[in-house]
Amino acid sequence: MAKVRAARAEEAQALTELVRRSKAYWGYDAEFLAAVDPELRIDAADVTARRIVVAEDAHGVVQGLASLELELEPDLEGEGAGPRARLGLLFVEPSAIGRGVGRLLYRDAVRRAAGLGVRRLLIDADPHAAGFYRAMGAVAVTVADAGADAGAGAVAGLVRFEVAPAVQAAWARAWTGGVPAVHVGNVAEFNAQFSDASLDREQRAAHHYAALAAFYSPYPAALVLPRAVPRGWIALVGRQLGWGPEVEVYDGLVERGPALSDAVRARPALAGRLTGAGLPLVPWGLTESFARLSGRPWRPQELRYESKAQSHELFGRILAAGGHPEIVLPAQWRAATRRAAVGLLAARTRAGMASVLKSEHGVGGSGTTVVSAAQVRAAGGARAVLRRLPRGPLLIEEYVAGPTEPGEPRDLTYDGFVDDAGRVHEVGGAVMDVAGAGYRGATVGPGVVPAWAQKPLPAFGNAVGRELAAAGYRGWFDVDFVADGAGRLAPTEANLRLTGPSVAFMVAARLDELRGAGHLVRIADRVELGARLPEAQFDELCEALARGCAELGAVFVPAIPTGAFDPAPWLGVLVAAHGRQALDAAEALVRARALAVGTMFAPSR
Fold first, then answer.
1. Is residue 475 a contact partner of residue 496, using CB atoms and an 8 Å limit?
2. Could you give the CA distance from residue 284 to residue 226 in angstroms, rounded to a whole number?
3. Cβ–Cβ under 8 Å, residues 573 and 559
4. E strand or H helix at 467, and its extent?
5. CB contact at 8 A, 548 and 506
6. For 158-181, what is each residue's pLDDT tens digit?
7. Three-state secondary-structure class, residue 492
């Protein structure tokens, strides 16, 4: 494993020779190399002045080098407005090319630039290296885009890239106190505490979604997982998100049933290792078993607003106090009996109104059904519709008609958390992909939330957070909304746990650190695989998808691997990019190639 250190003045000649070998690797003739040689030389004074670092292997052999050269950012009047920098040199020993040395040096340069307050990192790349910089997240710019730098950026034969270095988001630092955390994938354990018939008793899906524990914070110390996960998956996720080898993985602890925290406690050595390091333990959601593991006080009343009826009442109290004119609350009725529910639904159907039928609890849209008046009549009436739904308490809610403009987001969500001191931290808003009532994924990042919702969404989300804090809740939460056709938001439920969008926010925060600010991140819950694959071939597929997305300037991260081994195989994925076009292209590539794996087993003709 290579590591980065500051270069030393006495290494200047040896580093010059390394740069020359690296440049010659691309097949340039002697005449060209002689012409550019003055630009490749490193003097002893350059080592400090150009902030040169080297990457060396475990034996202390230098494998590559990079420089970070500060400049003054000119403003429109020509005065210095702030620091910018150039990645003046990034060269790798030919024998080490393709082994991750360039990636290590690049990420170090972006990190150092962010620490120095650099707002723009400029790269004038050899054409042979353009693919590398694109894959690392740098954005290619034209001479016109370069503006005041056009002259400097128009060096013959070079390709100009820019990066916006970023430090870790303030909310991400506050989430875990700025240190790595132990991630406990207790999804099934969280669900099991709600005796709702809409939730899977076997918790098969929950154990798959527990793999999202890899993303409960931007950089974990350890992952605790109920099911065994492929080793190749861990390696690829770690490489894509810049984790070191110190991230520990404890998997295969619970194949069936919800008791992950208890399974850890049943292994005293493991429990001691996880809890004795003084690192925060981050679960999917709070449970009594997790409280015993972590030593946290168990206060079941903290979770009362996980109930859809209770959260609806909370929303009503907030709106009654005023101050949220762009928020409208759909009416909701709790049916004490199925007979009462039949009467309510029948009355709404006679009035030609659509309805939303909800169980008290549920995840990912489970237990929620949307029916129009025509659908109720076609099904044989209200009684026939309700006969198909899970037993248990039922809520009937007014249906909110969505925007009429094509492409206008309908389903939005706000994410935040309440820290141990009761302070509310805003994380951001996202647009969800919902089909019917079923959640399929979400997209986060700059410009995702439409302009008209950018103020009311966080304003109401923060108000919910303050109420949760006052009620004693500590942890992550989100508030889901549907947009109506009049530019208003209707809150539909609160989730007092981590969610799919929260995972996307974590990955965006990490990639912004590694690749520059401004990532769009999309999580897709289920990408269909064309065939079940052996683990080795599954790893090969994921590596190929990572390479294909990198060629687009995007990042592929397999989020849920274990569904790939189900009888009807699927894969949860994350894709990220600095622009919508690349993001959409990456998702399309992943879906097409994942489905196409079945063709290798098709009978030949």
1. yes
2. 13
3. yes
4. helix 456-470
5. no
6. 899 999 999 999 999 999 999 999
7. strand
